[in-house]
Amino acid sequence: MTAANTAHNRDLTGRVALVTGASRGIGKAIAAELLSRGAKVAITARKPEALAEAARDLLAGAPDGAEVLDLPGNAGDADSRRDAVDRTVQQLGSLDILVNNTGINPVYGSLMDADLDGVKKIFDTNVVATLGFVQEAYRGWMGQHGGAVVNLASVAGLRSTGVIAAYGASKAALIRLTEELAWQLGPTIRVNAVAPGVVKTKFAEALVAAGEDKAAAVYPMQRLGTPEDVASLVGFLVSDSSSWITGETIRVDGGLLATGGL
């Protein structure tokens, strides 16, 4: 393949992406990656002020002519999901890429002590809301025009942790959901997932409370992940470079699961 063909396959010019949970961390980095590849990007999150600030930051670092649409809303609310998809299509012209990044984890420790309302909230946000966004994207654009979906899973969905068990169970369900959607929506819509290890974000602060060096010591790469590590993989998965990849969950974990531990 020539360099020109490689660049073409990477290019997202003319495509529109919706990234959920994009006011900070991994979601914001994914939005920046897609913008750098030429896509127009809509971003969602619950807090309007933080989302508007993220949109300004993204535009400041984006190529000339880039477009960012900030759409405040709760991923767990059906009306918010529908509004985000409708406004993306209406204002940016299409919806070719959906990145389901929103995730929560209010429950730590033994499942025997877990608050079941908290567990329900985890599954509703991490799994049910993700399916809801895919349904809206399908109805609003992708069902007729095709597209690419990436779901943010976790290595905790691939191996037991004992610490974030309810979260891990929800991500395991998300991995199975990804496979089922890939089978049902092919060939015009590709659906994949990425499974990060610990990434240096506010979301992961509780997991590195004992210190970053100690947390990173178990990784063959001897460092924790960055949001950009995840974002570059997502950029690949929604591009034409991955046109024969669907139903996969790809680890971006610095080799953590290769050690047999977690």
From TrEMBL:
Q: What is this protein called?
A: SDR family oxidoreductase
**PROSITE patterns per the UniProt record, alphabetical:** ADH_SHORT
What's the family?
Belongs to the short-chain dehydrogenases/reductases (SDR) family.
Q: Which SUPFAM superfamilies match?
A: NAD(P)-binding Rossmann-fold domains
CDD domains, alphabetically?
SDR_c (cd05233)
Write down the NCBIfam families for this protein, in alphabetical order. PRK07231.1
Which Pfam families does the record match to this protein? adh_short_C2
Q: Spell out the InterPro entries in the cross-references.
A: NAD(P)-bd_dom_sf, Sc_DH/Rdtase_CS, SDR_fam
